[in-house]
Design a protein that fits this description.
The complex is a heterodimer of chains A (249) and B (313). Chain A has 249 residues and is an alpha/beta fold. Chain A is 28% helix and 31% strand. In chain A, the strands form 2 sheets. Chain A has a 9-stranded mixed beta sheet, sandwiched between helices. In chain A, strands 2-3 form a two-stranded antiparallel sheet. Chain B is α/β, with parallel strands linked by helices and 313 residues long. In chain B, helix 7 links the parallel strand 14 and strand 15 (273-278). In chain B, helix 3 (70-80) packs across helix 4 and helix 5 runs parallel beside helix 8. Chain B starts with a strand and ends with a helix. Classes of the chains: A alpha/beta (249), B alpha/beta (313). At the A-B interface, helix 3, helix 4, strand 7, strand 8 and strand 9 of A face helix 3, helix 4, strand 5, strand 7 and strand 8 of B. Strand 9 (162-169) of chain A pairs antiparallel with strand 11 of chain B, so a sheet runs across the interface.
Chain lengths: 249, 313
């Protein structure tokens, strides 16, 4: 079974995003970039499926600038077999990403596409569901447990009230949540080996996809800030203030 | 110019979030209709019809919608979109599952988790875990929108909309529902509670959450947790408040033993009043809290319970 894993290069999880003074966006110059944390979990899931004999080949895809190649290398060092970089310096919206991934999924004949449930930059949480729709496939989002058996996938999903289990037909699209697994660190020998793994370079036009944005970003601003309040001396003081001053209890 | 709102429900009760989505939909300037898709869910349609500003309720009552599988609901919604210029739903896990599917089938972008309607085609939404706010203008003919309901006021109950039964769409037959393991609790839901008390890594064990639960019971509050507490196994994931968990905005949020990582603040900083109890006076949570108590939580929380008891709570 062939598995496709799309990965996104985003601002590092530990870096606080800063809005540019002119409101034109978030300042990414000289900021540490890493693989989207949810995507590390999808790479790990694919590698475990290969180790278990369920997956035969893992293809890593990234859509983004030339530097996204580093993100692909990281995924190859974790256990991906080969990569495809769809190079563009434009911002590609989820609908555009989903269209490119549809073309690649069909070309590669991938049985399962595993994606992070959302990217921590635009927080859209759309691409996996859109890809499933465009392919006419089933979808299993926010996965915290995945079992493949008898031509179906049984997936436990993180939902608002707890957990939900569904069974979906293969081929399918799975998006992963945080508790699915603990991604591995790539070992040095595997990082060396990953340098020799092939990465194809493509453009959105190679797949006949128009990536013109549908949403025009008018401005980007700082969120409203909260001011620090007062320190109270005791629990009695706290309860009195909550009752008499704030009136919330 | 009519907007279609998808009702959030469990086949019996309409969720409180839908009244807030209707409020966002009303700001688009046209009529508002509600779609209730479910099984044996007439009571949900009746509750939807009472929401102020709703002109019509569409009821698709069929077994294929009992668990609101994304493939099935998307098929139904897309089939209805001929008559609508926008479709809105809450940013709950249920809607996040099917709404992008609707958008893709309509070949339009989705505008995720809006917090403000600036104009019928212009919206504000948080990015980077709420560290930036983006104003976007949509050029698509149909707007597909999920709404972060914490920032919209619920509409009232004065409506009397007509309920129209509609036929189910065809069943794509791609997926089936197996079962749920939902947390059962007599306490209010995190997303609708007026008071929330949350514990963090400082709680040191799952057992210690009992102290928090005792306070919660006095205040009729919901119990939450930080991601650190969830990752450490002290609390289940559905209790997680934060960027990767639930976004909440209660009247009162009490953070106990929570340092205040960006990821947690993203989920609770819109709360009206924030209280922090932490023994580390440098903890970032104090920078956003209205009332801060620097204290050992193992002493302060039982004391808090006792003080509330004295008030007769």
């Amino acid at each position: 079974m062939k598995v496709l894993v799309p990965v996104k290069r985003v601002i590092d999880y530990n870096v606080k995003a800063r809005v540019k003074a002119d409101g034109s966006g978030v300042d990414l110059a000289n900021v540490k970039m890493s693989m989207n944390p949810f995507d590390e979990i999808s790479v790990e899931q694919a590698v475990r499926m290969k180790e278990a004999g369920t997956a035969t080949e893992i293809v890593i895809v990234s859509i983004g600038p030339a530097a996204a190649q580093e993100t692909i290398r990281t995924a190859l060092a974790m256990g991906g077999d080969r990569g495809i970089l769809v190079k563009t310096d434009q911002t590609v919206e989820p609908i555009g990403v989903a269209k490119i991934l549809k073309a690649i999924t069909e070309q590669e004949n991938a049985d399962i596409v595993i994606l992070g449930k959302q990217a921590i930059d635009d927080d859209s949480n759309q691409t996996g569901q859109m890809l499933a729709a465009l392919l006419g496939r089933s979808q299993a989002t926010f996965a915290s447990e995945v079992k493949i058996e008898g031509g179906k996938a049984e997936v436990t999903r993180e939902v608002d009230g707890g957990l939900q289990t569904i069974r979906v037909n293969l081929p399918t699209v799975i998006t992963v949540d945080l508790r699915l697994n603990e991604p591995r660190y790539a070992s040095l020998p595997n990082i060396m080996k990953a340098r020799k793994k092939p990465i194809d370079e493509k453009t959105p036009a190679d797949y006949g996809v128009d990536i013109t944005p549908r949403l025009k970003v008018l401005k980007t601003t700082e969120p409203p800030t909260r001011k620090a309040g007062v320190k109270v001396e005791s629990v009695q003081d706290l309860v009195a203030k909550l009752r008499n001053e704030a009136g919330v209890i | 110019m009519t907007a279609l709102v998808i009702a959030d429900h469990d086949n019996k009760n309409l969720s409180d979030v839908t009244a807030k989505v209707v409020s966002a939909a009303s700001q688009l300037g046209g009529d508002v209709h509600i779609l209730v898709a479910g099984k044996d869910c007439a009571s949900v349609a009746e509750a939807s019809a009472k929401l102020e500003g709703v002109v019509k309720v569409l009821l698709a009552d069929d077994a294929i919608y009992s668990a609101r599988l994304a493939e099935n609901v998307a098929e139904l919604v897309v089939g209805l979109m001929g008559g609508y210029s926008s479709v809105l739903s809450s940013a709950t896990t249920m809607s996040k599952n099917f709404m992008p599917r609707v958008a893709a089938l309509l070949d339009v972008a989705q505008i995720s988790e809006i917090v403000k309607v600036e104009a019928p085609d212009t919206f504000v939404r948080p990015i980077y875990a709420g560290n930036a706010m983006q104003t976007v203008q949509s050029s698509d003919a149909i707007k597909v929108i999920t709404v972060r309901t914490t920032t919209f006021q619920a509409v009232g109950q004065g409506g009397a909309a007509a309920i129209e039964k509609i036929a189910a769409a065809k069943n794509p037959g791609l997926s089936e529902y197996v079962g749920d393991r939902l947390s059962s609790s007599a306490r209010p839901q995190l997303t609708s509670a007026k008071i929330i008390i949350s514990g963090g890594r400082g709680m040191q064990s799952g057992d210690n959450f009992k102290m928090i639960e005792a306070v919660a019971d006095k205040l009729k509050a919901a119990v939450g947790a930080s991601r650190a507490a969830v990752d450490a196994g002290y609390a289940p994931n559905d209790m997680q408040v934060g960027q990767t968990g639930k976004v909440v905005a209660p009247e009162l949020y009490i953070a106990v033993g929570i340092s205040g990582a960006i990821q947690h603040l993203a989920g609770m900083k819109d709360s009206k009043v924030i209280v922090a109890i932490n023994k580390d006076e440098e903890a970032p949570i104090f920078q956003v809290s209205d009332y801060g108590l620097v204290a050992d939580l193992f002493k302060a929380v039982p004391e808090l319970e006792a003080e509330l008891g004295k008030l007769g709570l």
